[in-house]
Design goal:
Strand content of chain A: under 5%
Helix content of chain A: over 70%
Oligomer: homodimer
CATH superfamily of chain A: Farnesyl Diphosphate Synthase
CATH architecture of chain A: Orthogonal Bundle
Shape of chain A: globular
Structural class of chain A: mainly alpha
Strand order of the largest sheet of chain A: 1-2
Low-confidence stretches of chain A: none
Order of helices and strands of chain A: HHHHEEHHHHHHHHHHH
CATH class of chain A: Mainly Alpha
Number of domains of chain A: 1
Number of helices of chain A: 15
Radius of gyration of chain A: 18 Å
Distance between the termini of chain A: 22 Å
Mean pLDDT of chain A: 92
Chain lengths: 294, 294
């Protein structure tokens, strides 16, 4: 079972890697801008959000080829968020996935602009490559909501505030995570479902699954930040503790954090029951997320 | 005639001012983020791009009420671009429309994120408030193309490069302006036309008009940067010369710059002939743009 799952993931990842650069504009106008966009977009990573788009589409009986533009669009948005989060004015990171961050390579101005360009391009890809147009508009709305001032951007603002205000409750931390990580994961699942023509009931369960694994994913990130090896994780670790940000392990301990993540994944899989065997890979993915070491 | 025109502009501007804040999310999640978004969005300005959306819609026989969400969306994108352009890593401006720039008030991180949020919200507004959804998708595509890596963002990258490489030809300068200013103006006109159900022929002329006035507008900006009064213009002047950026007056002289701007506006008005009297306010606006002193 596990090896079927990992080979199915690997095939999706391969397709995403091959398709992503095809959406970058050819008519450059500025080579450095396109280089900077490509540098971060093609820097690897798990491609979790594209996988969720494709798997949600399959779970609802859709053709994942139809969802590939949305899979690539959400990865562009995720990439833009990493570029901006790494900036000196934000988390000030010089290492990401084992490579120098965008502003280290291209300078701060070009890094900001490459992020802006990826965010904007994501909506162009959705609007022009998802069919029919009514579904394209719904995908634009879903992605914008997940990425915007009630979702991911709000999460980043709250996360930065927490460095100085030092959020101390689990509720505060979950509010940050729900927006910063969860909202884009929810949008990924919703887009995959929308493209497959999912019912409102199916969309509701997909989104709930997304909220639960989003939180589990972030807790595991916190655990890896405490316990992980920078070589394996591919970015600086123990950075959250150093910056004064609260983490799950700090608030409730390592063991309780692990237990909570497991519990969330269990609940997430319960949400998938209405899909029957079509959602097997979404269940497998949820379990895989908490077993990872990077 | 002139007073009819200025009172019609004033009425459109009043409506835009009243409608813009209604699209900001109420469910804050982060008060500082919403404050920063509102601070820049409601800082005044000519609201040129929203005016173009509304006027293009009317020129094609549409109801401008239907186009108001697009008018507000393009102003959000314009505002985000100003916030990011003003950042220390970019133009490093501390004054905009006579007020301290976003990063001066909210700090650099929040300014970057307020810009990101406004850009994202623009697409949410288009996707959810423009009807029917097929037109919403076309508007998303138009705005993303104008604002993205082949449009406005490319223009800003090229503009920053020109500071060090010191672009010296009129062709280079026009390429920068066409992308940095022109592309979003073209998108404004296209969206207004799309919402009115314009024909491809009408859209073609609207976009051509937009390219021409976009360039004229930028030349006038360059002229004001040379000759204007900071009190009247509302931002630092003679900044381009100080930064080493080439300007129209520097390349071809003040008189030739004025003549060129006039000529462009003349050509722009020729593009409006197919609309008959319905495009009178677009003609008037073009002339108004080159007569302005701010």
């Amino acid at each position: 079972m596990k090896s079927d799952f990992t080979s199915s993931i690997a095939e999706d990842q391969r397709l995403v890697e091959a398709t992503l650069p095809s959406f970058l504009p050819l008519d450059g106008s500025s080579d450095v801008l396109l280089d900077a966009m490509r540098y971060s977009l093609m820097a690897g990573g798990k491609r979790l959000r594209p996988l969720l788009v494709l798997m949600a589409c399959r779970a609802c009986g859709g053709n994942p080829d139809d969802a590939m533009p949305a899979a690539c669009a959400v990865e562009m948005v995720h990439t833009y968020s990493l570029i901006h989060d790494d900036l000196p004015a934000m988390d000030d990171d010089d290492l990401r996935r084992g490579k120098p961050t965008s502003h280290k390579v291209y300078g701060e101005a070009n890094a900001i602009l490459a992020g802006d360009a990826l965010l904007t391009l994501a909506f162009e890809v959705l609007a022009t490559r998802i069919h029919p147009p009514a579904i394209a508009a719904k995908c634009c709305a879903s992605l914008a909501y997940g990425a915007g001032p009630q979702g991911m951007v709000a999460g980043q603002v709250l996360d930065l505030e927490a460095e100085t205000n030092h959020a101390k409750s689990v509720a505060q931390l979950e509010n940050i995570h729900r927006r910063k990580t969860g909202a884009l994961i929810v949008a990924s699942l919703e887009m995959g479902g929308l493209i497959a023509g999912a019912s409102d009931e199916q969309l509701k369960h997909l989104k709930k699954y997304g909220q639960l694994i989003g939180l589990a994913f972030q807790i595991v990130d916190d655990i890896l930040d405490c316990t992980g090896d920078a070589e394996v994780v591919g970015k600086n670790v123990r950075k959250d503790a150093a910056s004064g940000k609260a983490t799950y392990p700090e608030l409730v301990g390592l063991e309780e954090s692990r237990r909570h993540a497991n519990n969330l994944v269990h609940q997430a899989c319960d949400e998938l029951q209405i899909f029957g065997s079509g959602a097997q890979e979404l269940s497998d993915l949820a379990r895989y997320l908490i077993e990872r070491d990077r």
